[in-house]
Amino acid sequence: MNISDIAQRTGLTAKTIRFYEEKGIISPPDRAANGYRQYHQQHVDELHLIRRSRLVGFTLDESRELLAFSRDPQRRSADVKQKAELKLVEIDEKINELLQMKQTLEALTAQCPGDEGASCPIIEGLCQHKK
After folding, report:
1. pTM listed for this prediction
2. To the nearest whole percent, how much of the chain has pLDDT over 90?
């Protein structure tokens, strides 16, 4: 299958697929006599894994590691689970940071009269330096 076929099957753009190939993340595709890339089901599977791992928060390097696990018949599920658990901790930390950001912004917004005056508690609050 050509790159447009695999792009359609995976929901990725041709540019993204070429990027993953260039970075050595996916297996190199065969080349036809005309030089065009020839992809196979293996590439579809690899790209699905990468795409899904990215959707749940793994970085590209982490997705590469997960792909390496998927290729290794000697892998240990404990190693994969450990990576996923570490990612969950990281996601929880980000959620807490976002909640703190939201609370701060809500408090500043509630203090602002939003009128024609120059006094703005949002600007003043953002300019304050905490010691």
Report:
1. 0.79
2. 88
Q: How many residues does the chain have?
A: 131
Other CB atoms within 10 A of residue 41 CB: 10
- 3-state percent helix, strand, coil for the chain, nearest multiple of 5: 65, 5, 30
CA separation for the pair 82, 46 (Å, rounded) = 21
For residue 27, the 8-state DSSP code is P
Using alpha carbons only, what angle is made at residue 96 by residues 131 and 111, rounded to the nearest 5 degrees? 60
Average pLDDT, the chain: 94
Q: How far apart are CA 68 and CA 60, in angstroms?
A: 12
- Supply the pLDDT for residue 35: 87
Query: From its phi and psi, is residue 35 left (phi > 0), alpha (psi between -120 and 50) or beta?
Result: left
Nearest in space to 120 (alpha carbons), one of 130, 108, 105: 108
